[in-house]
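testing teh design pipeline on a random one, pls ignore if ur not involved
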């Protein structure tokens, strides 16, 4: 059992390269359902849902996309639809006007330049309006099984710093640090586990350190005496 590999509290004196695989094992045991929460059946649906998820909850996005995908199935329908119609379908989401514009423009590019298929490279995905590296990583890893990088959202950023996987504050540098720390084949799992742990236990405010399976390995908790003060 992975838990047997943690005989005593481990703080910053123990290197992150020693702690990282043990932390991953413990989270893997604790969070066996840690997978992407967005609902999708095609590459386009995954891309669209991920684009819509900015500043919105996955639950709300799933509610919206259930209607959107039924009304406008596929990039052809989205590219042909009036912008006002798309806005009406996603209007309950934050930043819906900009998201509608990006969705329509991306659909048109996918039709014109990629034969109607969502591209499977970082370069092509990030060339789409509204698609930054985080969204591209979500699509590549979950849609194509391609680990081009690590998804770094607010949860991954927070936990990576609390666990001292990185000292960086810049998203790109945090991703690079995680890519160096974990083998490529684990990059998707690392993001999924950190995201779910952040949502369930390691909250931004008042993290539940007393209920945390990796608390003995967390420098922030050890230094703060079970109270993360950051």
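output:
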């Amino acid at each position: 059992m992975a838990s047997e590999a943690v005989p005593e509290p481990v703080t910053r004196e123990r290197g992150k390269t020693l702690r990282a695989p043990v932390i991953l094992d413990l989270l893997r045991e604790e969070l066996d359902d840690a997978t992407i929460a967005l609902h999708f059946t095609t590459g386009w649906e995954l891309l669209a849902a991920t684009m819509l998820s900015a500043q919105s909850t996955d639950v709300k996005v799933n509610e919206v996309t259930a209607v959107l995908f039924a009304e406008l199935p596929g990039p052809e329908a989205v590219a042909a639809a009036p912008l006002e119609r798309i806005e009406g379908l996603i209007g309950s989401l934050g930043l819906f006007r900009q998201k509608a514009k990006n969705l329509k423009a991306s659909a048109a590019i996918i039709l014109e330049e990629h034969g109607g298929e969502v591209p499977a490279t970082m370069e092509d995905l990030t060339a789409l309006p509204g698609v930054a590296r985080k969204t591209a990583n979500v699509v590549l890893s979950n849609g194509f099984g391609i680990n081009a990088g690590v998804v770094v959202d607010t949860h991954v950023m927070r936990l990576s710093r609390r666990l001292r996987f990185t000292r960086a504050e810049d998203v790109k540098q945090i991703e690079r640090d995680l890519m160096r720390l974990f083998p490529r084949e684990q990059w998707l799992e690392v993001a999924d586990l950190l995201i779910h742990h952040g949502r369930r236990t390691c909250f931004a405010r008042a993290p539940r350190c007393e209920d945390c399976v990796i608390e003995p390995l967390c420098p922030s908790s050890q230094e703060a005496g079970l109270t993360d003060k950051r």
